[in-house]
Queue: 4 jobs
Job 1
Amino acid sequence: MQCRQCHLRNRADARTCTRCGAPLDTADLDGATTSRPAAPPTAAPPTAVPPTATPPIAVPSAPTPSTAGPTSAGPTTADRSAVPESATPGSTGPRETAIGEYVMGAGAATTSAQAPPRADATARIVVALGIVAVLVLAGGAYLVWLRPTSSTSAQPPASSASPSPGDVSPAPAESTAEPSPSPDLDSQRQAARSLDAVVVRSSQSRAKLHQALGFIDACRVPSAQGLFNQVVLERQGELSTLDTLVLDSLPEGEALRRQLAEAIGQALNADRAYQRWAVYLAGHGCRAGHNGDWTQAQAYDDQAGTAKVAFATAWNAMAARVGGGLLPHSREDF
């Protein structure tokens, strides 16, 4: 019996269409049995029969309404038209074809419903490739940043342009400024200057001693006595100052202190001998001549000279090493 809606030929005893479910008119059944003889069973066209290895018609997952709605509702009009009309009543070909079409439709709906995961995988691949590209670019930028540092530290900046024959390269300007001393060198210079200040004071006392001896030659014994007394006091003060100097930062400090103290101490002994000689002259007259005090003064003066030479030698070596404008000394300076 042929359905009026989908034109599917159903079994003769069917009351509803096996494809669309429309009720079949019994008059059509009578007409079909009286007017048309039963056609011999014919094989369905190969194109309408699904492959033999069809997926099991178990329970297809219900498609989502947005993508699989039309497919799950049943075969479309185009699918109905693909069913051959030559199937005989009682044949299972059209029914199997309809079921296969439904299964294929459900599979298509399932495939279309599973499309988003494939899009998600593609997005993940694109994101991964983007991350790799960013890492490669960052690594290249880091290498480019390191390259100038290593090249500039390995070799001096090249001004590779060779001068032409007519060019004259200016000579580098010589710096006359003295380099700034290190903290250790500066402390050594300060200690040496404090020692030099004592030498300067001793030099002034020596000048006064020579002036007092001149007063003796001029028979000005009282004036000479006053200067001798003053020189003795100054020498004592110089020794006291020398004893309080802090010379720890100067490697030669203690040796220079001892040598200068020896020189000033022997000079003080000579000054005291001259002082006693002046007292003798004051009592015996300026023309009394030399006595034992004057002889002792000469001996102390020679010992002071030897100590002064030793100090001056050590001082000049230290001043040349330390620098800072320190002047050399000799025996006649103090």
Note: The two ends are 150 Å apart (CA to CA).
Job 2
Amino acid sequence: MNDTTIQRNMDAARLLLEDAMPNGRFDVIRELVAPEAVTRRAGFANLFQATGDAIPANGNFLEWIEAGWKPLSESLSDQTSEARDIVGHGNTVLLQFHMTALHSGTFAGAPATGKRVEWDENAVLRFNDEGKIVDLWFMCEELSLAQQIGYKLQLS
């Protein structure tokens, strides 16, 4: 894979995570992501599972973003995302980014606090030869966010 292709993929990943997703720009998301793209793990997968939240932890990315974005963006609104580190190798892009949002609605069972919350997140995105994202994997600081929205850690 040449440097131009790797840079194209890194630019697409940055556009997806710094602009299209935080701003709910579905037209841009559909341009960047292949229809068959799979989310291997949503960023809040463990938190969703632990709290019984209805947002799925994995599956077809475009279906997830269209069904899951409305409840997510209503509960964590006014999102910002800043890529801090981005690395491209072959058809894979790795990003470490910092997110902020307003906790404006019930998220993972926690009622709105009205507070600004923040977390760091990592993403691994794989691209096909046409430059479309076909595979996504996310991991974020779920425990940090859970504590910011009111969850307490407790030994059982």
Note: The chain is about 35% helix and 35% strand.
Job 3
Amino acid sequence: MIDITYYGSFKEHIKNHVELKQTVGYKYIAEAEHLKRFDTFTLEKYSFTTTLTKEIVLDWCSKKTYESQAVVDYVGKVKFLGFSFYRMKGKTRIRIHPKSVIKMRCKVKELTSRSNGMGNELRTTKLRRYIMGWINYFKLADMKTLLLQTDEWMRRRIRMIYWKQWKRVRTKFKMLKSLGIPEQKSWEFANTRKSYWRTSRSPILTKSLKNDVIKEFGFQFFSEYYRQVTT
């Protein structure tokens, strides 16, 4: 484990990030040295700034005089602290790296598993905390479409959880009726033999456990919280 000293305004964040990576088993040597260059860059140009802004990230990722053209050509393949970059109309923009998206979906899948033994109250609390932390970290990136798609997938998983929890036919029938489904339709649907995942996308379950109902249960949506922190 190497010892690198950071001096910029983000030194504590960088130091904590490197220590966390090394604590969980990563060598993180090359990355720590790369972050040292970022530390020097912010010390020279943004010494009085304590918030990581889009301006700083784009300035850091822009082509330097000592860099070859090849670096700019492959800007889309660059990964920096979970972010990636792309060109649009001659400008460099920020997006979330595909590996970061995969990690996020794996975590959401873990928290919305129908067999993890987690109670609904604890589930909503953990999911809410994760979504808020994730959005606040990546809020500089362009991700509206990604969040809308993620919300749709997550809500389907939540419907699957409740459908499994209702278990018995009579319970399903009772809950569907209480959520506004006509009695005949409730009874027919309560007796379905389709799988939990297939049922979670059915029109009746989408209508009964609609978005507002899921919100009333205490669940937070990615896209809604993103709008809150970016407006």
Note: The mean pLDDT is 85.
Job 4
Amino acid sequence: MEIDRAPERLRTLPSWLLAQSSNLVRRFVSAELAALDVGRGHYALLACLDEFGPLSQADLGAHAGLDRGDVVRHVDGLAAAGLIARSVDPTDRRRNIITLTDLGRRRLRELDTALARAQDDALARLTPDERQQLVTLLRRLLDPPGPASVIAKDSVSTESPNPSRS
């Protein structure tokens, strides 16, 4: 997208700029992962298992921010490729526990390298300090709201702006 072609009112909206930036980065990431025959969801699940250890499918999806149906589809593909192992939870036979295999760990390292390339390409216009600042700001946007936002939300008046309508 050529940002100069967009109306000025769009070019000043953080929400629009974030969406356009997301589309740009997604293209770089998708291209790198597609070259390795993997999708973003696969990477997210492998990364979660590497960091958090064995998880139920439900917990795995919650950590990765993926829908249950997508988790099942991705888990099936990852298990078929030998990147994860599925076993019945001994404390609740209705649940599956998903574990990262050694092959999955090796594959995750390859994917980490590919994603680092995608990040470098997508963010080439930013200095390392600007990239870190971007990550800091985005994490602040996405972090769970704290007491300050609760106070700000509570201070918004719910009364009718026109007293004659009350």
Note: Confidence is low (pLDDT under 50) at residues 154-166.
